[in-house]
Amino acid sequence: MLRLAREYNLLPCEYIGQERDPEIDFLFTMALDIHDKELLCQCGDYREDCQTGDGWYEIADDQICYKQAALEEFRKDNDDLEPGTMLQVVDLRREQAPSRTQHHTKRTQSVPGWVEDDSLG
C-alpha cells in the first residue's frame, strides 16, 4: 500500500481515503524508507535472498527492449551531448501513420433495449 501511495504521489492517509494526519503520514513514509534501505539490495530484492545464493542466479538475455537499444546506440554515436539533454524515444510508426478522423460518431439508429437519456446533454 505504501509503495502504491508513493507511486501515485499521494500521502498514505490520502491514498487510503482517511483524513490527513501529518504524524501518521510521516511515520508510514519513514517506515517504508527505513525498510527499503535496511532490507533491500540495490537490485530491489531482499538482501537476504540475493546475497546468499552464490551460483543460483544466471542472466536471461532472451528479451530485447528495442527502445533501450535505440537509446544505447544513440548515446554511443553521440558522446558530445549537451549536459542535461533529455533523450526521448519516438516510435516512428506513429509519426509516419496517416492521421485519422472519426466519421459517423453520432448514433442514428436506436438499439433494442437501449434507454434514451438526454439528461447528460
Please provide a written account of the structure:
With 121 residues, the chain is mainly alpha-helical. It has a domain at 2-50. The protein has helices at residues 2-7, 12-15, 22-39, 47-50, 66-77, 92-96.
* Mean pLDDT, all residues: 83
The secondary-structure class comes to mainly alpha
Radius of gyration, in Å, reads 25 Å
Give the number of DSSP strands: 0
Q: What is the distance, rounded to the nearest whole angstrom, between the alpha carbons of the first and last residues?
A: 39 Å
Describe the largest sheet.
none
Q: Which parts are unreliable, with pLDDT below 50 for 5 consecutive residues or more? A: none
Helical proportion, percent range: 40-55%
Which strand-content bin applies to the residues? under 5%
**What is the overall number of helices?**
6
SSE run: HHHHHH
Q: Could you say which overall geometry the principal axes of the C-alpha atoms support? A: extended
Record the SSE blueprint.
Elements: H1 2-7, H2 12-15, H3 22-39, H4 47-50, H5 66-77, H6 92-96
